[in-house]
Specification:
Distance between the termini: 68 Å
Shape: rod-shaped
Strand order of the largest sheet: 1-2
Number of strands: 2
Largest sheet: 2 strands, parallel
Structural class: mainly alpha
């Protein structure tokens, strides 16, 4: 299976454009060589035309060397097999087959490349053996060099294939790591939003419940039409309790939503108290709502991890909220140990 080619981008030419440029460069080399060598060669016009046609076919096939590597290698091999016995010019058309053979191995057609190299070596060897003594064009040393040359072309193509596969794997791993990092970031953002939503729910639910209880108690007292002085004291007490509860709720909301502060905004220089450190304020608000809250701490208080500390505080807060809203009890005992 061929490795996917990268899409053109960043000003780089496409693979097809590169193949066309390579084919044009090879054609230029072969033509210049043939013209220079043709000054000393004399051959019939028909053979010359056929030779130029084979040169055009071999070089033109290189435009498709990555899309049809095996077919291009076969075409260039056949072009060379006909060109060299036919033409009086010993031009470098073999470059086309060398490039096509290496590309065949580089595109993952390793077996086909080996077969083509073996067929080429066998054909040349058989052709030379059948020559009459003294008429051989290639000696045994040249055949050995040809064999090494063909093996090198296949090996170079194989090495290119291995390197391309390695780079592709590295790229895929990098993309996978990037996608995993993005997924983790989205998951962390989602978890943080859920945490903030729970915190806001707890803060608002507790504070609004206490405000409701305090306001309801004040209205109940005022409904009995007390003396003006007593009514004013009752209303003042209720409003102060509502004010204190609202102030604490705003402070907790600021601490909870502090992580959402935009870039460039000033941040607090000292951490805001949280967790059981705010238990006294929580008890004070509950007492302002009419509950008789008593706390009993056993042992020596020790610092707790922030998640545990905040969870303990929320448990006490939710319990006081439920008692104020739903329970008929007026006395609450809180035990910490």
């Amino acid at each position: 299976m061929s490795l996917p080619h990268r899409a053109p981008g960043g000003g780089r030419p496409s693979p097809r454009a590169v193949d066309a440029l390579v084919a044009g460069a090879v054609l230029l080399v072969v033509v210049v060589w043939a013209l220079v060598a043709g000054r000393r060669a004399d051959e019939p016009a028909l053979r010359a035309v056929l030779g130029w046609a084979l040169v055009a076919a071999g070089c033109g096939a290189l435009c498709f060397r990555r899309r049809l590597p095996v077919a291009v290698a076969v075409v260039t091999l056949l072009a060379c097999a006909v060109y060299y016995p036919l033409s009086a010019q010993d031009g470098p058309l073999m470059i086309t087959f060398a490039l096509a053979l290496s590309t065949t191995a580089a595109e993952g057609r390793f077996a086909a490349a080996v077969v083509l190299a073996a067929v080429t070596l066998l054909a040349v060897g058989v052709g030379e053996v059948r020559q009459q003594p003294g008429h051989r064009q290639i000696d045994d040393t040249s055949l050995a060099v040809l064999a090494g040359w063909l093996i090198s072309l296949v090996a170079v193509g194989r090495a290119q294939r291995t390197r391309a596969a390695y780079l592709h794997e590295v790229e895929q791993r990098a993309l996978a790591a990037e996608r995993e990092q993005e997924a983790r970031a989205r998951q962390s953002a989602t978890e943080e939003r859920l945490r903030i939503a729970r915190e806001v729910h707890d803060v608002l639910g507790h504070s609004i419940s206490l405000i409701t209880v305090q306001s309801g108690a004040a209205l109940h007292r005022l409904g009995k039409k007390p003396a003006p002085e007593a009514g004013l004291a009752t209303a003042t007490e209720a409003l102060e309790a509502v004010k204190a509860t609202s102030k604490d709720a705003v402070r907790e909301l600021r601490a909870t939503l502090g992580g959402l502060r935009r870039a460039g905004e000033a941040t607090p220089t000292t951490p805001a108290p949280s967790g059981l450190a705010l238990l006294g304020d929580l008890v004070g608000r509950a007492r302002g709502a009419g509950l008789d809250v008593r706390t009993d701490v056993t042992g020596v208080p020790v610092p707790l991890p922030p998640p545990v500390d905040l969870t303990a505080y929320r448990i006490v807060q939710e319990s006081l909220t439920n008692i104020a809203r739903h329970a008929g009890a007026r006395t609450v005992d809180i035990g910490l140990g």
